């Protein structure tokens, strides 16, 4: 049995990028593996969220994950800040993380460019905290989207560096995971890059059908195929990528053929795409509201999850402390 771990920052509602990029793999894996899923509330602090919103966001994401089918009977579901052992291991691993490599991280450079007035130390050491999340349960697999690939690579480096430094074979080499071979990037509706909360180009699982229709209708397109079998511009390729994840292979083939014959009508294409997204999200959306209002259930899930997560985390921390030379008198 393998150990699997994944997580999300509570910085807004879940979008279909989160769902198809990472969660869907986790849901399949929870059936047969030892699975941990957590809400990375410490990670969300890099942007200094309004204290009155922090808890609301954790509640939202937690409810949305449960509504998607994450099963607390099968997987350990917890909130990062409920597990203080993570903070201590983070401190220990920080001693083996170097400024040069942290400064070169793509996500750090991107965030520093976007918010030059808030380049804080937490942002710099974000990959160390993420490595800690993974190593504290010695995970084998980490279902994530393509954007997290480099963080996984850094996690493997830290694991290897620790093992080498102390002459042990303690930490495993965790692998980013997707059931297809390639990690997935769900693009946004604005023709560029990935779907992301801060990019404002998302379809959320909580979006009502009318909202989804409107967003898809407004998605960026061009003036149409330049001829037979023309290459697709990015904005069109992106919509096809989304269609590939939500629609049947026959539907995808149909619109690909229309594109290749230069007969596609974007109005029909978008209508179909919106309909297929709505089909996937509707049953999830309907469950979210019930779960979100069930305080007793959420309390039970997070309390039990924290207990199980701390059991595993404190075992790792005790062993790491021993390896590093900490002793009691
Ligand atoms: P976050 O909160 O940005 O996203 C959560 C998960 O959703 C995936 N994802 C996507 N996948 C495909 N296409 C997209 N457009 C897209 N947008 C988001 C992300 O890859 C991620 O898997 N640093 C992490 C949270 C984290 C974590 C961890 C994850 C903290 N510690 C340990 C795994 C293991 C993050 O910011 O994800």
What does this structure look like?
It is globular and about 80 Å long. The model has no long low-confidence stretch (mean pLDDT 95). The protein has 13 helices and 5 strands. Strands 1-2-3 form a 3-stranded parallel β-sheet. The chain has a two-stranded parallel ribbon with strand order 4-5. The protein folds into 2 domains: 3-184 and 295-324, Rossmann fold (3-Layer(aba) Sandwich), CATH 3.40.50.620; 209-289, Orthogonal Bundle (Tyrosyl-Transfer RNA Synthetase), CATH 1.10.240.10. The protein is mostly helical.
Main sheet attributes: strand count, strand direction, barrel closure: 3 strands, parallel
How does CATH name the architecture of the largest domain? 3-Layer(aba) Sandwich
Please report the total strand number as a whole number. 5
Q: What is the helix content?
A: 40-55%
Name the overall outline: globular
CATH class of the largest domain: Alpha Beta
The secondary-structure class comes to mainly alpha
N-to-C SSE string, H for helix and E for strand:
EHEHEHHHHHEHEHHHHH
In whole angstroms, how far apart are the ends? 38 Å
Count of individual domains: 2
CATH-defined topology of the largest domain: Rossmann fold
User: What number is the mean pLDDT?
Assistant: 95
Strand order of the largest sheet: 1-2-3
Radius of gyration: 21 Å
Task: Give the low-confidence spans.
Answer: none
């Amino acid at each position: 049995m393998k150990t699997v771990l994944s997580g999300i920052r509570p910085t807004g509602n879940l979008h279909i990028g989160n769902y198809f990029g990472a969660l869907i793999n986790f849901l399949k894996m929870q059936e047969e593996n030892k699975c941990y899923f957590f809400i990375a509330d410490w990670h969300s602090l890099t942007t200094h969220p309004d204290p009155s919103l922090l808890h609301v966001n954790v509640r939202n994401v937690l409810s949305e994950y449960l509504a998607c089918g994450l099963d607390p009977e099968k997987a350990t579901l917890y909130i990062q800040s409920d597990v203080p052992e993570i903070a201590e291991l983070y401190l220990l691993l920080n001693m083996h993380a170097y400024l040069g490599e942290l400064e070169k991280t793509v996500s750090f450079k991107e965030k520093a460019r976007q918010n030059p007035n808030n380049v804080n130390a937490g942002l710099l050491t974000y990959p160390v905290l993420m490595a800690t999340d993974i190593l504290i349960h010695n995970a084998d697999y980490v279902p994530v989207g393509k954007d997290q690939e480099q963080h996984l690579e850094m996690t493997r480096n830290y694991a290897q560096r620790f093992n080498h430094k102390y002459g042990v074979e303690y930490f495993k080499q965790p692998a980013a995971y997707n059931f297809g071979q390639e990690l997935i990037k769900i693009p946004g509706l604005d023709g560029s890059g990935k779907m992301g909360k801060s990019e404002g180009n998302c379809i959320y699982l909580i979006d009502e059908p009318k909202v989804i229709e409107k967003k898809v209708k407004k998605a960026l397109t061009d003036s149409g195929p330049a001829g037979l079998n023309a290459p697709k511009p990015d904005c069109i390729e992106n919509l096809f990528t989304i269609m590939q994840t939500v629609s049947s292979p026959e539907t995808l083939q149909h619109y690909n053929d229309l594109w290749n014959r230069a007969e596609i009508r974007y109005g029909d294409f978008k209508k179909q795409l919106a309909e297929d997204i709505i089909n996937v999200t509707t049953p999830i959306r309907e469950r979210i509201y019930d779960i979100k209002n069930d305080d007793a259930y959420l309390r039970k899930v997070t309390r039990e999850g924290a207990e199980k997560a701390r059991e595993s985390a404190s075992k790792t921390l005790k062993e790491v402390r021993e390896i590093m030379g900490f002793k009691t008198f």
